Each structure stands twice: as structure tokens, then as C-alpha cells.
Amino acid sequence: MRRFKRTAALCAALCAALALGCAQNEEAALKAERRAPDFSLSTPLGADVHLGSLRQSGPVLVVFWSVYCGACRYIIPALNALAEKYPRGGLSIIAVSTGDPAAEVQAYADANRLKYPVVVDGANQVARLYQIRGTPTAILIGKDGLIRKVWMGYSPEMDAQLENSIAALLK
User: CA distances (Å), 89 to each of 20, 38, 120, in order?
Assistant: First the structure.
């Protein structure tokens, strides 16, 4: 019984580490200091969101996620806190749902009380354009259109990294 508990605990720890984004240390496919590809996508309710328009008011944090991504749930509190800290101007946050049906995306956004816009990339065209390898992937884009930082996966340290990178960009 003791061996079973130890093995179960080890498996749980390993699964948690994988779910929290061990891929974060991998080299991002889309590197910082390159121009961010422009895109337009619609919210689940049909409103158009254009990256170029968001950039006019300041930096944009684009987060690729999926309703089926377990690790994506862990980034929500940090994103909600950022959305509250920068409610108008300064920073825009946009969550790009990859491959999910619009109805599921809206239900997820409502259930998790997301405080930032969510758009649907049902055919993964924008995800391919950004060379997204997994979710969550967060990309900080400067007002000048350059990618400033890329985070792949999630770890608790990412919350502070997001805050620090955004604060530095807004100086």
C-alpha cells in the first residue's frame, strides 16, 4: 500500500509538472524582436477584433489557449488581474481560442468570468501564423508591433514575469 501511494504521488507530481507547462523552457518558434503578424478574428458573439487596432492604444498580450487545456486554467487569475489593473489603455489582452467551437468558447469565458476579450480561431489559421506549438502560449507585443516576449506553457513564476515585462514596456 505504501509503495502504491508513493508511486501515485510521483505520477501525480509528474503529471502536474507536465500540465503546468514544462515546455516553457523550450525555444519559442516565434522569437522576440520580430514583427507580430497582424490578424482579425471574431468573438463568439460575432464582434470583430483586430490586432492592429488594439496596438494603437499600447502593448497587447495575446494568449493562445483552448477550452480543453488544463494548464490554461491556471493563467486566468493573472490575466484577470492584469485586465483589472489596466482597464482602459496601456495594455490590451486578447485570448485566442485555438480550434474550439464558438459556443464552447463563450460558455468557458462565462463560466470562468474572463475579464478580457476572447476570439475564436476555429481553423487554427492564426495559431499557424504564430507557429504555436501548444497552449497556453502568451505573446507580448509592443505598440510598435514587435514581439517583446514569448511564454510557452505555464508556471507560477509566469505571473510575476508577465507583470514585470508589461511594466517595463509601459515605462
Answer: 30, 19, 23
